[in-house]
Amino acid sequence: MKRAIVLAGGGAKGSYQFGFWRAIRELGIDFQIVTGSSVGALNGALFASGLYDSGLEMWNNITTGDIVTTAPSQISQVMDTEGIVASLKNIFGDLSESAVNIKMDPFPLEKLIAKYLDEKLLRESDVEFGLMVSEYPNMKARAVRLSEIPYGMLSDYLLASSTVYPSMEPRDIAGIKYVDGGYSDNFPVNLALDMGADDIIGVNLRATGLEAKYETDYPVRVIRCHFDLGPTMEFIPEIAKRNLALGYNDTMRSFGVYDGTAYTFEKGECEKMQSEFEKYCVDMLIKCGAVGISEKSSYSRSLAVKGFCEKRRHRLGLMGHDLAMLCIESAAEFFLLDPTPVYTGDSLGKEILRACRPFEEKGKNPMAVIFSSPKPLNYKLGQLQPLDRKDVIAYLVRLFEELRNSDSQNRDLRSLCRFMPEEFFAALYISFLKTKEI
């Protein structure tokens, strides 16, 4: 078996890939091939060289000034570029403003490569290495294996793969100009397959760039983060450390060491949360009319749960096991809780209750004001969009508490379940937490 690690491009988001590397080192997962594009090529060269400690030191300390020097671009000095930036959003994403308004000189990156990479060590490694560049100006993808790169020119190809055009000038190598590999294939799975991989683990940074389609019967596991990994071209050590923790957690969850889909829980916590929450959940869903009594035994496949499942992009067939976990994760996300620790259900529950309390104690909840109006329900629902989601959840928690002590259904809750399922199920779990003494 030849296992490949495929590393996507994404600028400063690349620190996430070293969190992944930390995890697979602990898991004892080896690899024989590494392919990468842009920052994934830079990281990939470190991976293939075995320079974990050097790369970790780099990511824990680099700042934007260690990567590029910047100056206003010529175009930004002679015209208003707002319209150009907007038109390029679909291509460059969060790089649009930098690509148009800033001129970048990669000279600091050249020094960084010289400091942290050892070309001789890479060439002597048993791990094969390949990277992507894009020919300029036709943007044709070109895959380059280390064996095709003349000795002493590795740095040129790594810089070419990371050349963010038009902020950076295309890099000329032997009369051919190249720019960032992300402009043709930002996630080079095909290159790994061409190099003989029959088992692939990819780390996708959800960054701007084109990704070539791939077809294979071999297993491809993709690690990606639920949360935003920060700006692409701002290298900030604090963000890098957060991304390292997220990359580690996400990888350990992917291999079953931890529980969770967005947040990270100790193994076994999701099953425990589900067993504690299930009866309360079913009773309240029936009581508010979101689930019929006849659906009690199959509540996890009801329309109410299906709507929540679609919002969380989760498989409906797993909801009977994962509903509590998705509810608590949704609540934690609404209240912007830190996703880097490894939680228990109770420890995250305490954080959620603490974060929710100020919104419950507000003198006038804006959602309560809207729903106290005699206007029709459709009108009220139309007024909710601009509200702070935390105010919405606090109001829903109050409705659940009232419902728990009432014998009648709450039509507002039933409608809100359909209209805003994530907020509804987050509030449902918070109301459950309040019945526990955690």
Would you mind describing this structure in some detail?
- By secondary structure, this protein is of the alpha/beta class.
- It is 49% helix and 12% strand.
- The chain has 21 helices and twelve strands.
- The strands form three sheets. Strands 1, 2, 5, 6, 7, 8, 9 and 10 form an eight-stranded mixed sheet that branches.
- The longest helix has 19 residues, at 269-287.
- The radius of gyration is 25 Å and the shape is elongated.
- It starts with a strand and ends in a 5-residue tail after the last helix.
DSSP, total strands? 12
Cα end-to-end separation: 48 Å
**What overall form do the CA principal axes indicate?**
elongated
| Class from secondary-structure proportions | alpha/beta
Radius of gyration: 25 Å
Helix content: 40-55%
> How many strands, which pairing sense, and closed or not: the largest β-sheet?
8 strands, mixed
Instruction: Pick out the low-confidence regions.
Output: 73-88
Q: Bin the strand percentage.
A: 5-15%
Rounded mean pLDDT score: 91
SS summary, helix count: 21
User: What is the oligomeric state here?
Assistant: single chain
